[in-house]
Amino acid sequence: MRRRSTPQSWALRCRIILACASGMADKAVAAQLGSTQHALGRRRARFIGHRIAWPGDLPRPGGPRTVTDEQVTALITTALERVVGRLRGGCAGRRGQQAVSAAGSAPVVR
């Protein structure tokens, strides 16, 4: 399970979960994967407590999203439509139609 975009801590966590699910003892799993029993127990407890499908599914740091998926879709749809009678139509002119602030539309447009 080695690829450039997978942090190896996630890969180790997945190996621990799979080895424990196969019924191996904690001591044997720790020895096989080159980890300590303490780290193995911590990761197993974290998995049992949260039951996540993948370590990347954990909540990310930062505030919640302020722009909904529907607003993004509406903004992109409007930006892609051809404006009749105008040669150039920027998103700044249409921003008021979607009720999305300049700060909210900037990350979507980039």
Architecture overview:
The protein folds into 2 domains: 50 residues; 41 residues. It starts with 7 loop residues before the first helix and ends with a helix. Helix 1 packs antiparallel against helix 2. The protein is elongated and about 65 Å long. The protein has 110 residues and is mostly helical. This is Transposase. InterPro entries: Homeodomain-like_sf. It comes from Planomonospora parontospora subsp. parontospora. Keywords: Signal.
N-to-C SSE string, H for helix and E for strand: HHHHHH
Number of beta-strand segments:
0
Span between termini = 33 Å
* Unreliable stretches covering 5 or more consecutive residues: none
Globular, elongated, flat, extended or rod-shaped: what is the shape?
A: elongated
Q: What structural class should be given to the helix and strand makeup?
A: mainly alpha
Q: How many independent structural domains?
A: 2
- Tell me the quaternary state: single chain
Average per-residue pLDDT, rounded, comes to 74
Rg, alpha carbons? 24 Å
Largest sheet: none
Portion of residues in beta strands equals under 5%
What is the overall number of helices?
Answer: 6
- Range of helix content: 55-70%
Organism: Planomonospora parontospora subsp. parontospora
Signal peptide: 1-30
Keywords: Signal
Protein name: Transposase
Give a quick rundown of the structure.
With 110 residues, this protein is mainly alpha-helical.
